[in-house]
Amino acid sequence: MAQKVDGHTNTPNAYKSLTDLQDVARNMETMFRKRTDRINERLAVVQQRCDEIDRSLRELERSKLKLESSRMLHADRENLRKAMADLAGTPEASISEARDPLLRDELGDAREAIALAEALLELKED
C-alpha cells in the first residue's frame, strides 16, 4: 500500500493525509458493519413478530370459520325443529297425540328425515 501511495505523491504530508484517510475509511467500515448488524437484528425481531401476527391471524380466521359453521348448524337445527313442530300441527303437539294414522306415518317419516338431516349436518361440521 505504501508503494502505491508513494507512486502518487512524494510529499510526507500527502502520504500522512492518505494514511489518515485510510484509517478513517477502516473506522467507517467497522461502524457501518456494526450498524448493519444491529439493523439486521432488528429486522429479524420484526420478522418474527410479523410471523407471530400472521399465525394468530390464521388461527383467528379458523376460529371465525368454526363459529360461522356452528351458527349455521344451530340455525339449521332450529329450522328443522320448527319444521317438525309445524308438521305436528302445533309446537306443543307430539307425534303420539296425532289421531290420524296417515298423518302419524307421515310425521314418523318426517322425523326420520330430520334425524338423517341432523346426522348429515354433524358430518358436515366435522
Give the strand content.
under 5%
Low-confidence stretches: 93-98
Number of helices: 3
Helix content: over 70%
Radius of gyration: 40 Å
How confident overall, as mean pLDDT?
A: 81
Largest sheet: none
**Overall spatial form:** rod-shaped
Structural class: mainly alpha
Topology pattern, helix = H, strand = E:
HHH
For the termini, the CA-CA separation is: 75 Å
Count of beta strands? 0
Description of the molecule:
With 126 residues, the chain is mainly α. The chain is built from three helices and no strands. The radius of gyration is 40 Å and the shape is rod-shaped. The chain starts with a helix and ends with a helix. The model is unreliable at 93-98 (pLDDT under 50).
Compact summary:
This protein is mostly helical and 126 residues long.
Topology summary:
Blueprint (H helix, E strand, L loop, with lengths): L1 H7 L3 H77 L12 H25 L1
Which key phrases capture this entry?
mainly alpha; rod-shaped; single chain; 126 residues
